[in-house]
Amino acid sequence: MKDWTPPPRYGVNDLVPVCIAYTETELKKEAKAVAGKWDPEEKVWFIQYGRIKGTSLEKHIVSDATPKRQKAQKHIIV
Question: Starting at the edge strand that comes first in sequence, how are the strands of the sheet with 37-39 ordered?
């Protein structure tokens, strides 16, 4: 089994995508307790990194989802 590699560093206020399986009810409760928001389009939770740093949720961060706010900012023409 391959060791877990931590994701790239995030700022404490950065929203990070967290993948929690439907059956992992305890992790979903943890996500809600730290003000995580479910994104039905991406099918991931978005949580501020500072709220999950050092917890079991940190190991569930995925790198291939982007919060809607960041997506919207990419399309703004200045």
Answer: 15-18, 44-48, 37-39
pTM: 0.72
Q: What is the pLDDT along the chain (78 residues), one digit of tens a residue?
A: 667 766 568 899 999 999 999 999 999 999 999 999 999 999 999 999 999 999 999 999 997 766 655 554 444 444
Question: 6-13 long-range contacts, Cβ below 8 Å, gap at least 24?
Answer: 6/58, 7/61, 7/63, 8/63, 10/49, 11/49, 11/50, 12/48, 12/49, 12/50, 12/53, 13/48, 13/49, 13/50
